[in-house]
Amino acid sequence: MPGRILPRKDHEPTDPWQGIGEAMAHVSRSFVVAAFWLMAGWGSIANGPSMWPRSEFALAHTPIDDPHLDDSMLVLPDLRTLPPSALEIHLGPHGRVLRLANTVWNSGTGALELAGEVSPADRRVSVSQILTRLDGSSHVKFVGEFVWHPGHNHWHINDFALYQVWSLTPLGDLERVVAGGAKVSYCLIDTDVVSPDLPGFVAGRTYRGCGRDRQGLSVGWGDTYAPYLDGQDIELADLPDGLYALVSTVNPVARLMEANYRNNTGVVYIRLVGSRVNILMPRDLAKEVCLSHGKC
């Protein structure tokens, strides 16, 4: 069962230890919503209908670009997305903006660990994923670059998450993307205990800072971005009121190596009315779809 979630204030305090004690004393309201959807069997691609969207590599094998690397001997992370939560509507310069909290977590047998290396020539920071083998040895796989995020004031890896709003058919199936679609960069640290019963879970936070040397996500831990943070929004522009699906996918272009690309997406169904957004519980979805299309 999911565990507690630690609310993040600014994602990376100047002192990595600052605020940890007080954060442990609180429970995020957004996690309560997310946990309900998971327990109800909704919000996870692994449990959901086949028409729910998947990552671009969902039906492919794990992408290996090193012929000498045997992926069957690796202890891999498995990235998943909790259903988006803490939804808010704000008014932006081009119309309504949907803001959301997003939690990515690691359900695998191994940690996701990223190591940065600064080039002396141009100061660019190349990033490698540290892959651990069953015998304890490691393999280094280049996965991109750390980039400085001026809005968050720390280092991110690009193309880590994808937020989309989908329209629905009269039967309630996902139809097409009507908003969002820009891939979001992330700093990866342990902020939330999601599944403490997993083998390999360690109670203490291993990854704490958003520097360019080392980032990651431990087994059973999640990383939450609150709705007020830069990038946690989707411009709705002139999207009309109605029923939609809000879809969040981690590792959408398989930049990072993991055990399973078929379970990367979290989904919630929402109702947009003016400046309000409501999450629809599973029992209410069929009725709302019926009423919205006048076919009850």
Structural write-up:
The structure is a single chain. The chain is mainly β. The protein has one domain. It contains three helices and 16 strands. It has helices spanning 20-23, 29-39, 282-292; strands at 74-75, 79-81, 85-92, 95-106, 112-118, 125-133, 138-149, 154-168, 174-186, 192-193, 214-217, 221-225, 233-237, 242-250, 265-273, 276-279. Strands 1, 5, 6, 7, 8, 9, 11, 14, 15 and 16 form a ten-stranded antiparallel sheet that branches. Strand 3 (85-92) and strand 4 form a beta hairpin. The chain is globular. The two termini are 37 Å apart.
Unreliable segments of 5+ consecutive residues: 1-42, 44-64
The best one-word shape is globular
Q: What structural class do you assign from the helix and strand content?
A: mainly beta
Note the total helix count: 3
> What assembly state would you assign to the polypeptide chains in this entry?
single chain
List the helices and strands and how they pair.
Layout: H1 20-23, H2 29-39, E1 74-75, E2 79-81, E3 85-92, E4 95-106, E5 112-118, E6 125-133, E7 138-149, E8 154-168, E9 174-186, E10 192-193, E11 214-217, E12 221-225, E13 233-237, E14 242-250, E15 265-273, E16 276-279, H3 282-292
Antiparallel strand pairs: 1-6, 2-4, 3-4, 4-12, 4-13, 5-6, 5-11, 6-7, 7-8, 8-9, 8-14, 10-12, 14-15, 15-16
What labels describe this entry?
six-stranded antiparallel sheet, mainly beta, 9% helix, single chain, globular, 296 residues
Short description:
This protein is mainly beta and about 300 residues long. Helices cover about 10% and strands about 40% of the residues.
